[in-house]
Amino acid sequence: MSMFVSAMTTAAVMMGITLGFVTYAIYAERKVLGWMQLRIGPNRVGPWGLLQTVADVLKLLLKEDIVPHKADRTMFLLAPIVAFVPSFTVIAALPFSEHLLLADITIGLLYVLAVSSISTLGIVLGGWASNNKYALLGGMRAAAQMISYEVPLLLSVVPVVMLAGSLRLGDIVQEQAGGFWHWYIVPQFFAFGVFLIASVAELNRTPFDLPEAESELVAGYHVEYSGFRFAFFMLAEYMYVFAMAAMTTVLFLGGWHAPHPALDVVPGVVWFVLKFVGVVFFLFWIRATLPRLRVDQLMGFAWTVLLPIALLDIVVTAIVQSIIR
Amino acid sequence: MAIRTEQLLLNVGPQHPSTHGVFRIVVTIDGETIVNATPVMGYLHRGTEKLAEQLTYTQIIPYTDRMDYVSAMTNNYVLCHTVEKLMQLEVPERAEFLRLIVMELQRIASHLVWWGTYLLDIGAMSPFLYAFRDRERIIHLFNELCGARLTYFYMRIGGVKWDAPEGWLDRVRAFVPTMRAQMAQYDALVSGNEIFLARMKGIGTYDAQTAIAYGLSGANLRCTGVPYDVRTHHPYSLYDRFSFRVPIAHSGDCYARYCVRIAEIHESLNILEQALDVVPDGPIMGKVPRVVRPPEGEVTASIESPRGEIGCTIVSKGKDRPYRLKFRRPSFVNLQILPKLLIGESMTNLVTILGAIDIVVGEVDG
Amino acid sequence: MKGIAKGLGVTMKHMFAPKVTSAYPDVPIDMPDRFRGVQYFEPDLCIVCNQCVRICPTDCITLTGKPNPDPLKKNKVIDTFNVNFEICILCDLCTEVCPTEAIVMTNNFELAAYSRDELYKDKEWLYANNTHIRSENSTNLSPAAKGGKDNGSER
Question: Which residues does chain C have within 8 Å of residue B66's beta carbon, measured at their own beta carbons?
């Protein structure tokens, strides 16, 4: 019983942290986009607009929950939950520092990537159940895109697993201790590139935001959603930003390790957060810069560019490793 | 057993972010491939030509502002120019210079709007805001000159309403190098970007014969290598006094249209630079009777608007109002090729192609 | 990749560039003098010549005159003067033809209202709209008005 209570408490705390992250990630995204576009971004609600997202969420909460008459009601109501729940479960396996991790799973990496792919189902379901043509197109695009990019995403982490010799995320980070030249971004730069690109595609963010391409599909799969159901999709999206940025940090940027052993006095969490923020900023930055790819180009890119690079990387890593041993 | 597939009828517009106003395309799609496309227009039809029959010539000018609202100056000019041609009015040189300067500024402003919104269609957000920042400089110049930011109503039959205010010409002169520097930034942001190129190259291609057969004009024609520009072929205003290039491209795709428009901004800056140095002093209004009453007759004139060849035909019965007035609206004519270009393309290319044609719905619907 | 890197450079540079937004409506926007805003109407100057009504392209002005209350004067004075801002396009023609500068432009442009009725502005409202009056207005000044008082700006 006490275990259950403590688990629930941890979950609640984690929920608070991630919700806080989502709130301020949206705020930060709007601020960064604003600055890059010669604007100042949100500045009306609270000091420097800090409460803008809170106000937006409140507005979403108060909005009418509309279910279109011709929608498949059960599926329509289920879809946001299916999209959101995996995004939150993923957080459990992420190690933020040596001691700060909730579930130390031996196959942590596999778990994160496997669970996160369930969300695709929610998006497709939402697109289909809305009974809206734009939503359907968005949902189909999401299915095609997320499934094709999952392949290079998974393959790009294989070399990391080969180097670390473990699927446990904590072990992978431990292997990268002792300065930034031990981080896997150095030996596995190509894998890092593939992972970064594929994760942006998995996140449905610019330049891969085809499922919600507003200039073509208006809003894509969530076009019929309003109020808190829409917020759930939004929440899931930013949860994955959180998860993917954390994964990038863990797999390639040395997790909680300082860039130099001399800097070890600074707590690991700080380093983790710094790297994590860097990755998130990069996501915002490319959103401010790049246009959207076309569907066929997107698919072609995954199968003809990323996949061969990832496969080649595995082979090269295997050969190099067997020579060194 | 084969899976049953169905074609989907999709209404793109009239409320859709990428139709640039209230324009509608009914597309039949098979998956994401467009099988058939029917443009539906008229949501913004105000009957400018019919309204004009009830209005005196001066009163028509503000209505032309609202036709192609992104390029009001050239619309003003085509009407004034046609009436002047009909009445054989002499326009003072300074007025003509001011008209030419504002028209070239307007061309830059209009192309900037196109550039920004086109890239927004393609999915990049920042260029839109950069373009509007620079367009704002031009709009501010116009605001100082004629007191409006969009519907200028600057030109009058036989001249212009206002002389340039103190220091205005110098501010325009200062604008030219600023804009050149900005263009370099734009090139760095967009023109070399691989994703942009991949989105634009080879999309919506047609050849010169097709373009001429459809009556296309402006950048939509010049992108196929036809160097037709009313400014050089039938010089009006003072364009024969300045040296400028008519930018052309040869591939006839969206990227060619993009390049032509970017080059046109540079050429407009060149024209501005030449014109600003030789603006003479003098009156800004010709000797125009208080009531404009052209002689009986019919006259047609056309000029090069940012969107193509805009023409105006007036049938006069000697009254102070036209008997019939007709605008050749380039957006409307250029749009006719759209269904042909769309068939077989994907939904994503729909916005790329529609955007590259550069329509203004106010002008399409008249 | 080079093009994308260049683009990233441009956006990064803009991140630290000065921002171009204005704090409207907290800080009002100053329009240049020639700006065509909502008209100001001076009933005492109006000679009920009806020129503004005739020139208006959208027929948004309606006016009526009445005999001068001073029995010694034969002229008419303005009784009602209404501008319908639902259809007024602020084209400047009424101020252009007004021979006495009774109707002139101001730089005020905030016309938003919750009801269409509120956009129907009468003589009193237009007379009260007396700030930011434009300095140059008519191109049709009658000789009397030209020599008369300078209807300059009150800015």
Answer: 89
The answer to whether the CB atoms of B348 and A206 lie below 8 A apart is no
Nearest by CB to A39, which of C11, C16, C19? C19
pLDDT higher for A322 or A211? A322
Using the Cβ of C30 and the Cβ atoms of chain B, whether some distance falls under 8 Å is answered with no
Those residues with Cβ within 8 angstroms of residue C25's Cβ, 6 or more apart along the chain or in another chain = none
Taking the CA atoms of residue A185, residue A188, residue A189 and residue A194 in that order, the dihedral angle to the nearest 10 degrees is -110
Q: How far is C34 from chain A (nearest CA, A)?
A: 28
Q: How far is the C-alpha of A298 from the C-alpha of A306, rounded, in Å?
A: 11
Taking CB atoms and an 8 Å limit, are B347 and A217 in contact across chains?
Answer: yes
**Residues of chain B numbered 180-199 and touching chain C (CB < 8 Å):** 185, 188-197
Nearest CA in chain B to C1: B194
Chain C residue closest to B145 (CA)? C34
What pLDDT does A100 receive?
63
Q: What's the rounded Cα separation, in Å, for the pair C84 and A109?
A: 69
In this model, does residue A175 exceed pLDDT 80? no
- CA-closest candidate to residue C39, choices C97, C79, C95, C114: C95
Q: Above 0.85 for ipTM, yes or no?
A: no
pTM score of the predicted model: 0.88
Residues of A in contact with B193 (CB under 8 A): 290-291
Query: In this complex, which chains have at least 3 CB pairs below 8 Å with chain A?
Result: B, C
A118 touches chain C (CB under 8 A): no
Tens of pLDDT along A238-285? 888 888 888 888 888 877 777 777 777 777 778 888 888 888 888 888
Measure C14 CA to nearest chain B CA, in Å.
Answer: 9
The string of DSSP letters for A37-97 reads TTS----SSSGGGTTHHHHHHHHHHHS-----TTS-HHHHHHHHHHHHHHHHHHHTT--SS
**Domain parsing of chain C, residue ranges:** 36-148
- Please report the number of interchain residue pairs, chain A to chain C, with beta-carbon separation below 8 angstroms: 33
Contacts of B194 in chain C (CB under 8 A): 1, 3-4
CA B93, B98, B104, B110 dihedral sign is: negative
User: pLDDT tens per residue, chain C (155 residues)?
Assistant: 777 788 888 888 888 888 888 888 888 888 888 888 888 988 888 888 888 888 888 889 988 888 888 888 878 888 888 889 889 888 888 888 888 888 888 888 888 889 888 888 888 888 888 888 888 777 777 665 554 444 443 33
CA nearest to B358, candidates B152, B191, B211, B218: B218
**What is the least distance, in Å, from the CA of A309 to any CA of chain C?**
16
Question: Which residue in chain C is spatially nearest to A33 when comparing CA positions?
Answer: C15
Q: Which amino acid is at B197?
A: L
Strands B324-328 and B308-316: antiparallel
Domain B42-320 has CATH 1.10.287.130: no
User: Could you give the 3-state DSSP secondary structure of residue B137?
Assistant: helix
Question: What CATH code would you report for C36-148?
Answer: 3.30.70.3270
Cβ pair A66, A227 in contact under 8 A: yes
> In terms of pLDDT, which residue wins out, A84 or A101?
A84
